[in-house]
Amino acid sequence: MAEVEIVEICKVVPSKPSSLDHSTTPNFLPPTFFDIRWLRLPPIQTLLFYQLSTPKPFFDSILPRLKDSLSLTLHHFLPLAGTLTWTETSNRPFIQHLEGDSVSLTVAKSNADFFHLSGNHVFCEAKSYHPLVPNLEMSHQRTASLALQVTLFPNHGFSLGLTMNPAILDGQTFSLFIKSWAFICKSLEETQITNGYIPLSPELEPFYDRSQIKDPVGLEEHYTNQWLSLDGPNNKSLILWERKVPPDAVRGTFILTRAKLETLRKLAKDNHTIRVSTFSLACAYTWVCLVKAEDISNEQVHLVLNVDCRSRLEPPLPPTYFGKCIRPICLSAETKSLKGKHGLVLALKTIAEGIKSLEKGILNGAENWLSMLTSFLGNSSSVRSRVYSVAASPRLGIYSADFGWGRPRKVDYVSIDSTGAISVSENVNGDGGVEIGLALKKHHMEAFASLFFHGLDAVNWNSKL
């Protein structure tokens, strides 16, 4: 059995530029209702695998550069070196970075098969990935924003594991951070550090002004009171929920190439006049295959999409806004119809209607977002069995994160093992294709794989799909 050996656990503190002109990152952030909604939800865990094409001294060269560049990057992202805090005397939690706060960085070695873990295999045990991501330090009053782990696979490459507090950052902010870290790390090859500071390019500089997020109906207070009463009264705990991974869960990555997407797009348009985006097509096709593979017996099934609200707010926020800024769209469809010959068209139509509903207002129905989320993630297996959710997005561009040793060989969203979400991301080749990530029981994964590939090879729309 593969083993992971812990080499060291160190603390990386943000760099301190000698010039005060560079100290513009806030060390205190009040939460918005977007943040508070995710207060105790399970952590977000992501893995990036990097293959080293030529042998390099990892502990003498690569690791020190990763540490140095992380320190320089954290100067721009102080909240990630801080904590989410909720004291006995404060009415609401807050994000703060105190002098001496740091990010925990675990350094490890593994004798596991690097190419198996970083390949597009359908049957890879989910538990194989868990030793490659770190635990997040947490207590009832303080929970860390971020923890990191770098794991060396000798003679092959390394993985970079991130465990993130879901109330601190969303996919867009994660993408901003990992690209900034990669940018600074790569810059160390040719840029001399001046006064302990390396500037970011404008498209990577985080935006921290939260005054533009308006809360006219008191959603922040509404969500806070809901958390206080959950397992309460006055429950201020910041311990994140833990959801167990089924012991027989396997992971699989499925590729929708650009050509396959275009084929499905044409088939869908031939059967119904609806707008078909790459994201909606990937979600719809996966949804239909999953409902069939798991042989869902409930009358209805649900799909929850998360929508980035930055550009939809009034006034709009820039893409570099730091924090949580997403809202859910909860979609419902009749199980029998999704299993039918026009299931994909129904799924696409349902998604299109959900996206169109945003025209009623980006915050429409926001008072129910938290209660909906906690019910879906609750302990009722009957609820979980008929609710699917989507994580990540092809727009995040994580595969562009080149630290100086090439693009990632593979990006995996480990937290879907416990949440049961579907990860949808850009293809590693950057050719317009999409990667679908799943964690299922083995017999469900076998059924899904058969349906997924059979549908792509189908010629007759009505009889095959």
| Average pLDDT figure | 92
Low-confidence stretches: 379-385, 459-465
Radius of gyration: 22 Å
What is the helix fraction of residues, given as a range?
Answer: 25-40%
Using the alpha-carbon principal axes, give the shape: globular
**Helical segment count:** 14
Report how far apart the termini are. 40 Å
Largest sheet descriptor: 7 strands, mixed
Number of strands: 17
Beta-strand residue percentage: 15-25%
> Structural class, judged by helices and strands?
alpha+beta
Strand order of the largest sheet: 7-11-17-16-14-12-13
Please provide a written account of the structure:
With 465 residues, this protein is α+β, with helices and mostly antiparallel strands. The protein contains 14 helices and 17 strands. The protein has helices spanning 33-36, 58-74, 114-117, 171-187, 219-229, 258-271, 278-293, 335-338, 343-356, 369-376, 381-384, 416-419, 442-457, 461-464, and strands spanning 4-12, 28-29, 44-51, 83-85, 94-96, 103-110, 124-125, 142-144, 146-153, 157-164, 249-256, 300-308, 326-334, 387-391, 410-413, 422-426, 434-441. The strands form three sheets. A seven-stranded mixed beta sheet has the order 7-11-17-16-14-12-13. The longest helix has 17 residues, at 58-74. It is globular, with a radius of gyration of 22 Å.
